Amino acid sequence: MRIFGRYIWQYRYGIALFLVFAGIFAGVFFLYNLEIEAVLYAVLCCLLFLVVFVAVHFIFYYKRHRLLCEIRDNITLLAETLPPPRSLFEVDYQEMVENLLGCYKAALTGEQSRRSESIDYYTTWAHQIKTPIAAMRMILQGEDTDESRELLGELFRIEQYVAMVLCYFRLDSTSSDFIFKKYPLDAIIRQAIHNYAPQFVRKRIRLEYAGTQETVLTDEKWLLFILEQLLSNAVKYTQKGLVRITVSPEKLVTISDTGIGIAPEDLPRIFEKGFTGYNGRADKKSTGLGLYLCKQAADKLSIPVRICSEAGSGTTVFLDLRSAELEIE
């Protein structure tokens, strides 16, 4: 009915003109004292013709509308299949569509080219920067002083930021290298713990993890990245106390800490890109990218992520690693 109403509104002038002409003929017949039956018969014939014409014309109108809606929803694929124009206005509109589509394709090609160049540049930069980082690590590991340990901690943060640069570009790429297999969850968690062990030692934070025998269907590299980002936040915002990792039989991974927590008004926005929140601004070292990248990677792996926190009482993160069992027929 909505489409029919718009159809009537579009052709309202033509329908009104037709009714005016019919009224004129009926008036003339009446003034010439013709039989009232003849006048009514002529009027009814005109109305019947109008109804039949409108019904048939509306059917073609509706089919054309559905075709244009399908082309609109797949404009980049079906732009060349526009129906033949029926008026000069439709010719103009189709030419505008073709010009806009050409501009869109040119802009898209340029954007893809610039993005590809940026990815190539940062990928090359990330691999080149690893050489001086490795050299500095070797030099600092040769000295066992408080200063060298502090510098090793800062060097580790640099390595993590370099890794975040690569992950930032790879996650937004259509050709992300995801490899899904069944992996022992314990090995992935222990690898993340091993990578962050010096940070726990340096800040004297206790870590509790009892191990698990569960296996998960996931991408090992990206799940490890998610766990590392969560451990990074736990270490960064915990000054004393402990970080606890547990895995339930339902493959629900829980990472809780006794840190400064998250303000209630910040919780709805913690996964936004660049959002640091009150505690992040107070820390002066938060980039607002860690949880954003973590959420992006989790969405790619179809892992629900939920965070509960209370300011001053710590934060708990839940990763649901359950996956549907697929049967091969």
Automatic annotation (TrEMBL):
GO terms for biological process: cellular response to phosphate starvation. It is found in: Cell membrane. PANTHER family: HISTIDINE KINASE (PTHR45453:SF2), PHOSPHATE REGULON SENSOR PROTEIN PHOR (PTHR45453). It comes from Candidatus Aphodoplasma excrementigallinarum. It is a multi-pass membrane protein. Its EC number is 2.7.13.3. PROSITE patterns: HIS_KIN (PS50109). Gene3D superfamilies: Histidine kinase-like ATPase, C-terminal domain (3.30.565.10). The chain crosses the membrane at residues 12-32, 38-62. GO terms for cellular component: plasma membrane. Keywords: Cell membrane, Kinase, Membrane, Transferase, Transmembrane, Transmembrane helix, Two-component regulatory system. It comes from the Bacteria. GO terms for molecular function: phosphoprotein phosphatase activity; phosphorelay sensor kinase activity. It catalyses: ATP + protein L-histidine = ADP + protein N-phospho-L-histidine. This is histidine kinase. Residues 124-325 form the Histidine kinase domain.
